[in-house]
Amino acid sequence: MEDNSLVSVIVLAYNQQDSIARTLDSILMQKCRLPIEIVVGDDASTDGTRAVCEDYARRYPDIVRLMPAAPNKGMVDNYFDCMLACRGKYIADCAGDDYWTDPKKLDKEVEIMEADPSVTIVHTNWRTYNEDTHETKDNVVEQFPAPKTDGKQMLEAIITQTTTPVVHLCTALYRAETIKRCYAADTDLFRNKDLGCEDIQTVFMLAINGKVAYMPDVTMTYSIGKPSFSNQCNHAKQFRFVRQTAMLSWLLASRAGIDTGRTRWFFSLRAFELLMHAFRSGDAKLKAVALECMSTWNVKPDRKIKTVLAVMSNTVLWNVMLGVRGAFVALKRFLNLA
């Protein structure tokens, strides 16, 4: 049963024993006009993450709800299991390695949502923190800086985002009723693990159903620098992530009837990225998958795609170019260390 006086905050965690307390503390420090609950989904961590979460659940039994222990689900199922468990009128989330920096974040967002029922999601600016270099950097890309935007005007940008998200979901607050209604109407769109993520379809469906509000305030620090689901060192795994998220964008574009020069550029870019990951991995099977994606996305090969396909068409040439690339990478690493 939805509680109209409550804000739910989803926290996903996996092997983040060194950062999860920072995340939870940043939520507990919130000064919000509505009470909050924190729904924590620890996805079968193999380190001490769950023990930290259990400690917070014991210390804050009226606020922190730790989802029952279960075999590893993956990020998609973990997120939407938590979403369905949320009891609040509004839902926010903060990943287990990120943290909020503004104690009034939720209160400011609730004020906007309460004042305008047509707003389905409100989000803010953020900064990044490199866990390796300890460098903090402000995000300077604000694609839709207006206080409120008709969400339908943002759909193309949402499905063609490359490096900077149009809406960083960990800064956002959204209407539980809206997203749960969309989820019930098309559960596969949200639960399909082969679509790779939880945020793009969530933001897209909220945008298509109302207005998107924005605050330029920096309210969240986004941790980077270490391997994550979207930032992986293994080229085969990165290939899979790029393919999954691009297929999600293709599905959303198809359903909304969006076919523009921007979308065609985006799918051409993603096809090239897939081919390059296939090339670097030395896996001919990945090349075949990339070609299938090109066909599905109606991508016409440009000069870059034709070049990489020509290299990969000859096994000997492919191996030679891999050797050249390896030598170049080794030299670059040596020079950086010198």
Helix content: 40-55%
> Strand percentage, roughly?
15-25%
Flag low-confidence runs. Answer: 227-232
What integer value in Å does the Rg equal? 21 Å
- CA-based shape: globular
- How far apart, in Å, are the first and last alpha carbons? 61 Å
Helix/strand order, N-terminal first? EHEHEHEEHEEEHEHHHEHHHHH
At the first level of CATH, what is the class of the largest domain?
A: Alpha Beta
* Annotated CATH topology of the largest domain: Spore Coat Polysaccharide Biosynthesis Protein SpsA, Chain A
Features:
338 residues; alpha/beta; Spore Coat Polysaccharide Biosynthesis Protein SpsA, Chain A; 2 domains; ten-stranded mixed sheet; 13 helices; globular
Structure description:
There is one protein chain. The protein starts with a strand and ends with a helix. It contains 13 helices and ten strands. Helices cover 48% and strands 19% of the residues. Strands 1, 2, 3, 4, 5, 6, 7, 8, 9 and 10 form a ten-stranded mixed β-sheet that branches. It is globular and about 65 Å long. The model is unreliable at 227-232 (pLDDT under 50). It has 338 residues and is α/β, with parallel strands linked by helices. The chain has helices at residues 20-28, 49-59, 75-85, 105-115, 155-159, 176-185, 187-191, 199-208, 235-256, 261-281, 284-296, 303-312, 315-337; strands spanning 3-13, 36-42, 64-66, 88-93, 99-100, 119-130, 136-138, 148-150, 173-175, 211-224.
